[in-house]
Amino acid sequence: MTDVDEVLTRVHHEEWARVVATLARRFGDLDIAEETAAEAFATAVERWPADGVPPNPGGWLTTTAHRKAVDRIRREARRTEKHREALMLADTPEPVGADEPAGAVEDDRLRLVFTCCHPALAVPAQVALTLRMVGGLTVPEIARAFLVEESTLGRRITRAKAKIKTAGIPYRVPSREDLPARVTGVLAVLYLIFNEGYLASDPARPAVRGDLTTEAVRLARLVHGLLPEDGEAAGLLALMLLIEARRPARVSASGELVALGEQDRGAWDRRLIAEGHALVRARLATGQAPGRYQVLAAINAVHTDAPDVRDTDWSQVLALYDQLVRLDPSPIVRLNRAVAVAELDGPQVALAQLDGLPLDGYHPFHATRADLLRRLGRSAESRAAYDRAIALAGNTAEKAYLVRRRAQSAGG
Amino acid sequence: MAQYLVSVLADSSQLATEQEMTAIRAFNLRLKAEGHWVFAGGLGSPDTATVVDGRDGEALFTDGPYLESKEYIIGFWVIEAADLDVALRLAGLGSKHCNRRVEVRPVLGA
């Protein structure tokens, strides 16, 4: 990559959402914002290598996109009355780029995030729209990431944009009474993107999708930056960082998933861990009752704090799971809690706690049971549980891991 | 200000109970007081529908609804709201008051 290419990539990451968000506010139209932002970046790719990178790349891009939007509206104004109205709005003198106060620009991006994650849109549409409008991923990139046809993904985004416009989904930060629920919705979209990257559900895809997890972390960082007081936004970022830090150790050279207890902890990314731990500590220091993501982040902080799996403070992990069960008494949380119980009180006690959990279609349930049965020397039952887990698992690397564990169980 | 059609969905033509009617009236008063009210009404069951096709000159009448479905519209509000967020909040209250699911759609160009 040349220097200009590197600058272009970095500026695209840093400025895309800002340019789209500013244009969306000025013109009240996501289509125009998206298309002229894309055109402005295309112009930069053409010009910067020859002309040099402008001193304020973000301002240059916003100004260029703004001019393109005005040109486009002017062209279309000859056709319809509606566009003439839009043109009048666009022609009102508007400070451009660097002259605008930073706060206003931040608000624009926040508005954009809330619009893309509006609960009146279906969740797959929220995900696609967020990755396109806020993340700046192209339609082919998003389609590849979720293994859907480009045309399907394109239609999904077009339909969502049309609904935003026609149904009047507002381009603003929600009112105080709606805010908590809406933030929860935004965080759920980001967590979904991250999880799809961290354990890709499709057997045809690589086990871990670094492009998606990286993008999810970047978006979580942005949302945390925009809502610094929100504990759960901080919690989700910390959670992602502490899981992402372990990505280098997650898949073995032979493509097999490596369980937390067997990972090479030396391969973990210490910088991400330090950042995640700092966020968890900062949340603890507030003394406010933590939400789900904060507790999950704290559990991951305990794991990443142990230099060796034998150093894991399981009583701390269990205490945190107890807290989590109070917030979210779902069977999956109780399943994960049982793993900590097994470390403290033995596999027999843990196994008893799995009885009756309605998770027959969930492969980690069978994998956990299989492991507990193996440790109790109940090989035949263990193998049967592994078979069930292998049949249900979608991820190739995870299947490979389970097959090996099943083989180990044969001897015991 | 945009206008939205809030359709009330049901799987039977059972009329609103006394209690539901009282709640609906209270909600209508609130819509009027807050400047959201345009129009509202309850509808006869699909059995009472007539489909009319006048595209070829003389109108052709067909007895019954234009499509058979388990759920159908038994009433509606037309409300005025600044944006979909406001419309959805009002629709949520409407649904609660009439004790049925509702569907919100924008009225174009209103």
From TrEMBL, chain A:
One family name in Pfam for this protein: Sigma70_r2
GO MF annotations, alphabetized: DNA binding; sigma factor activity
Keywords from the named record: Sigma factor, Transcription, Transcription regulation
Source species, domain of life: Bacteria
Sequence ranges assigned to domain RNA polymerase sigma-70 region in this UniProt record: 18-79
Positions of the DUF6596 domain: 182-282
Gene Ontology terms describing biological process: DNA-templated transcription initiation
InterPro entries in the record: DUF6596 (IPR046531), RNA_pol_sigma70_r2 (IPR007627), RNA_pol_sigma70_r4_t2 (IPR013249), RNA_pol_sigma_r2 (IPR013325), RNA_pol_sigma_r3/r4-like (IPR013324), TPR-like_helical_dom_sf (IPR011990), WH-like_DNA-bd_sf (IPR036388)
Domain RNA polymerase sigma factor 70 region 4 type: 114-164
Region (Disordered): 81-102
Protein family according to the UniProt entry: Belongs to the sigma-70 factor family. ECF subfamily.
Name of the protein: RNA polymerase subunit sigma-24
Source species of the chain: Kitasatospora indigofera
Biological classification of the source: Bacteria, Bacillati, Actinomycetota, Actinomycetes, Kitasatosporales
From TrEMBL, chain B:
Lineage: superkingdom: Bacteria
Limits of the YCII-related domain: 16-91
Annotated family: Belongs to the YciI family.
Protein name listed in UniProt: YCII-related domain-containing protein
